[in-house]
Amino acid sequence: MSMMYQAYQNHMDLTAPWRTGAAATLNYLNLVPQGVSDKLFGRLAASLELISRSSLTYARPAYGIDRLLVGNQELEVTEEVTFATPFGSLLHFKKENAPEQPRLLLVAPMSGHFATLLRATVKTLLQDHDVYITDWHNPRDIPLHAGRFGLEDYTDHVITFLDKIGPRAHVVAICQPSVSALAAAAVMSEDNHPARPATLTLMAGPIDTRIQPTKVNEFAKSKPINWFEKNLINYVPVQCKGAFRKVYPGFVQLTAFVSMNLERHIKQHIELANHLAKGEKEKAEIIKTFYDEYFAVMDLPAEFYIETVRDVFQEHLLPQGKLMHRGRPVNPAAIRRMGLMTVEGEKDDICSIGQTLAAQDLCTGVRAYRKVHHMQAGVGHYGVFSGKRWNNEIYPLLRDFVHVNA
Predict the structure, then answer these.
(1) Any idea of the CA torsion for 289, 64, 142, 112, to the nearest 10 degrees?
(2) What is the pTM of this model?
(3) For residue 368, is it within any domain?
(4) Do 34 and 94 fall into the same domain?
(5) What pLDDT, in 10s, does the model give residues 206-261?
(6) Is residue 287 part of a domain?
(7) How far apart are CA 190 and CA 185, in angstroms?
(8) Alpha-carbon radius of gyration of the chain
(9) What does residue 260 show for φ and ψ, rounded to 5 degrees?
């Protein structure tokens, strides 16, 4: 097993004074009145900004949803942890004096970024729903004695969180956790669990990755599972609370993401430097805000990552009826009296058309009139749950689906 993570952390610790110094100098430069050698100070400020930002953060950014317009009334929003385990919190976005609305659990992916990546999704959903989210914790901050966290643990968390929310809640799973959300719904239905969801919405999720495989799918199948264990799994560095926990490090995942669109990211940082040098603060702020979120990375528990690659992307256990949960088969056909909605993006290069739709065929117990499928034209993966098309075209369909089945 590689010690790359430890070496990376040591390097970050050693170079931290340079970034701190650059940030401090930048604060002083910002006090210089405009018009005083703008060109010189602008270039210097741009250089210092890039130096101070040359690291990742492992702390969850804020959701920053403090107030929200519901109808014609502005309501205060507060975050409340309803329930927590060492690995995740059930976070409730509580609206003061809000009318009664359908309770909805947004199931966030564990994919190298925090659940705050769904901030815009939450904000839209909050207009018509009482929203909760699976707010996952960073494994590098979770002590070793808290135990393991695998694919079954993820599914258990979804079941437990729904139990805490109570009967007739609605589930919206984004991307990767669609498999666990479907498994949780199946197990709860088979057990006649009182808190089984009223609806299940799966958005751009890898239910059956044998259908039109993407580059991501092909990479997952290109190497044996022990290659992933040997080359991608590292120990959390000794400086961290989760020292010696096995993880797939966030910085390794981010490197892979960046390398897929390297030219675009280089271009963005050149533009950032140019905006700063010219004093175009608003344009610079847009780029900075995006990368503040993008460079906030979260490690993945090794067990969860390896089991997901093996069970979902290599062996396709769910669509073949072979996925197990705590020793029992996961049976999507057991889902009854529940609405099922699947959403896909036409240009999704991570989860292609048909992979999420496959859930409709697996859930044979759901009546046809309770099934909805939507393929959104003109959007890629992220466009399914954020941006204009999500707000104006996808969300109204989801909102109506939830309310009809409420």
Answers:
(1) -40
(2) 0.85
(3) yes
(4) no
(5) 999 999 999 889 989 999 999 999 999 999 999 899 999 999 988 777 666 555 56
(6) no
(7) 9
(8) 22
(9) -70, -30
